[in-house]
Amino acid sequence: MPPDLRTARRAEHTVARWTTYFLFACLLLEAGTLASTFSNRVELRVAAAEPLFPGQAAPNDAGRPAIGNLKLAALLGTGLVWLVWLRRAYRNLALVGSKRSRFSTRQAVGYWFIPLVNLVLGYQVMKDLWLRSESMNDRDGYDDLPAPALLSGWWGMSLTWGVLEPVVAATARNARTPLELTNVTDVALVGSVIGIVAAVLAIRVVRGIDQRQQCFSSSPQDLPAPSRAARH
């Protein structure tokens, strides 16, 4: 194995491992949010069945701001480590096979900072990285190949979660009665479940790409079995 490929492979693996650690932190925090929201919903259902006395407020989740701040910090940390890992993994494509890629390393990272553009090209970067890593970058053209279901599912769940989070926050600020708070809580529960699924799928995506890149120095028969997309 060439020394530069060995070093690049180890570096990618190290950052991939840290990326999964941060994703696990996001997963645990979202699970905590789900448990807290569900407990609050039970209290709201009880309050909705009973009339409020003058001066009495509807129950609310006092711990939610603290959890929200922890989630924000975890998401920011995860995003930073994710981009570092993506840069290393995408740069490794230049060391194997055709040594080509659809985007430059700078583009692969930079597109994530452009609003709306990242909703399309961010996914295209991940698709290109997955397919080229899966086949050891053995050809030039991957654009017409379909993405694996895991990647599409992760992207769809992540976008849905990203839309629901601000909607829940904005709606919760205007909710006052137990019924209104209950409706907001129901949406928040759905959002937490989607967030948990998105985090689990993100972990699988990082691990899947890392597993394939750790085979870059192996013979073709030692590579993981290609998906249906790669076989086509």
Task: Give a verbal description of the structure.
With 232 residues, the chain is mainly α. It contains seven helices and no strands. It has helices at 3-48, 64-91, 105-110, 117-134, 149-174, 178-213, 228-231. It is elongated and about 65 Å long. 31% of the residues are buried. Mean pLDDT is 84; it is low at 52-59 and 220-224.
Major sheet:
none
Q: In whole angstroms, how far apart are the ends? A: 29 Å
**Can you count the beta strands?**
0
Question: Portion of residues in helices?
Answer: over 70%
Q: Say what oligomer this is.
A: single chain
Tell me, rounded to a whole number, the average pLDDT: 84
Strand share of the residues?
under 5%
Instruction: Indicate the overall shape.
Output: elongated
Q: Supply the number of helical segments.
A: 7
As residue ranges, the low-confidence spans are: 52-59, 220-224
Instruction: Give Rg in angstroms.
Output: 22 Å
Helices and strands, in N-to-C order?
Answer: HHHHHHH
The structure class reads mainly alpha
How are the SSEs placed, and which strands pair?
Layout: H1 3-48, H2 64-91, H3 105-110, H4 117-134, H5 149-174, H6 178-213, H7 228-231
Short descriptors:
232 residues; mainly alpha; 71% helix; elongated
Summarize the structure.
The chain is an all-alpha fold and 232 residues long. Helix content is 71%, strand content 0%.
